[in-house]
Amino acid sequence: MAGGKLHDFAAGESERGPWIPTALANNPKAGQWTSERLSHDMIADYKPLVMTDGEGIRCSVYVSGCPFHCVECFNESIWDFQAGHPYTQGFEDKVIKDLGNDVVQGITFLGGEPLLNTGVLLRLAKRIRKEFGHSKDIWCWTGYTWEELMRPGESDDKLELLRDVDILVDGRYMKDHHDSLLQFRGSSNQRIIDVPASLRAHDESGSVKPVIWSKLHDQHRFIPEVYGKDRSAGEGAAS
Hints:
By secondary structure, the protein is an alpha/beta fold. The chain has seven helices and seven strands. The longest helix is centred in the middle third of the chain and has 15 residues, at 118-132. The relative contact order is 0.15.
């Protein structure tokens, strides 16, 4: 793993979300990392018409740069904030054109760390809402937990972007909690969050507990009962 020793920069702080702090990634203080300080407005990859990055057919924008440095991260090659190519007006226009395809349900922001690239993603999200309203949904992945994002002292741009996001997949990837049967996420600490419902609860009552996406449906291995009986019988006969 690149990046050297991992750190908990908010040692002693509690209630930061499931399995946080973790020894499998860096753990930031509120406001420690910001797009303004870290981002170079770089795009690592763009994939139109994909079906793996959220519900339905989607366009996926991968931004560059991530300081979480999760152990065995799938996208370690784009931890560098200067990787990839610059965000341009031409790139933005192509994304908007692709989103206009009737078969496309929405767009997904991934990385890298989207909430540390708000300089470009806020611009793109605002244009999507201007052009399409809420007829196209916006999904976003983040290494931050919902609770961390709701902490006092976190940078305002993160919350501003969240107010344009429909679904957030939160939390660091933790290899010890990896499960290939999970829907749209790599480890069981991560959650699929209904952002508008969660923000309403936060605005109305101050709750930092997220509202989980109502369509959550993880897979489960199924071993038919008759197979279990046959296996037991066979093992018994062999002993």
